[in-house]
Amino acid sequence: MSRPSVRAFTLIELLVVIAIISILAAILFPVFARAREKARQTACLSNLKQLGLSVLQYAQDNEEALPFVSFADFTVAPTLEESWTRSMQPYIKNKGILKCPSDAGARWDLETSDRYITSYAFNAYLKADQPYGMLPAINRPASVICLTEGADQVTKDHFAPYFWRFDPEFAAAPANAPWYPGAYGGMHPGAFDDAKDEAKNLALRRHSEGFNALYLDGHAKWAKWTQLWFQTPSSTPPVLHGAFDPRQ
After folding, report:
1. Cα 121–125–128 angle (5° rounding)?
2. Does some domain include residue 4?
3. What is the mean pLDDT of the segment spanning 169-191?
4. Scanning 18, 199, 225, 234, which has its CA 20 to 30 A from the CA of 213?
5. What are the φ/ψ torsions at residue 21 (nearest 5 degrees)?
6. Is residue 39 situated within a structural domain?
7. Residue 119 in contact with residue 202, Cβ under 8 Å?
């Protein structure tokens, strides 16, 4: 009885198959990576929306005052009691939503039960002890960013737009005049890149060359820095810090 012939693949055929698989992998892997990142971006946006509800609930329970921020550094001490990350806990009851899934910053290595480390930074223009720290003081809450994504290296719970560009009106306010001009000189270089005209302390390209932001009316959306950074110095009062400026 003769044995049936078995045709084997030639080396050329195997190389062609391997080449096709390699080409498909090169095409599909970036697609899968973008899909994963889009899912993380969506989860991050959901976090901010939940935080937005908690901020508005907090304001409702505190005579329309917005929360305080903490000047304690994550690398030095546990977040102080007045941090917004701690004062939101009765409303969110979940530390997990303080972290963006795409945030791989080293600060998370410092996480302990008494620290409230966060991917999200509160706009210090809006903290409770500032003139714009009350909801009625904001004319256009749907245009003012309250919370957004802090850069990976940031170890505080807030960012201060008034250190990005000098603000004469802010400096003239009685509560700020003694310290602001000197503080601006010290803080501006670490907070803003003048050559690129962009903030250093925000994660400006964490999600597809953009980042998520929560607005003071409770809605959240993705945007690019160039869409949010603008000045209208001729307005009354002048707007010097784009969508982060409560004087819009």
Report:
1. 90
2. no
3. 86
4. 234
5. -60, -40
6. yes
7. no
Paired tokens of 95? 């530390």
Specify the pLDDT at position 217.
96
Average model confidence (pLDDT) across the chain: 88
DSSP string computed for 119-173: SEEEEGGGSTTSTT-BGGG-S-GGGSEEEEEBPTT--SSEE-GGGTS--HHHHHS
CA distances from 85 to 24, 174, 182, 198 (A): 45, 28, 28, 26
Q: pLDDT > 70: what percent of the chain?
A: 89
Domain carrying residue 152: 11-244
| Position 86 in a domain | yes
Higher-confidence position of 191 and 18: 191
**Rounded CA gap, 189 and 95, in Å?**
32
Residue 14: count of CB within 10 angstroms of its CB: 11
Domain tally, the chain: 1
220 within a domain of the structure (yes/no): yes
Q: Is the peptide bond before 237 cis (omega within 30 degrees of 0)?
A: yes
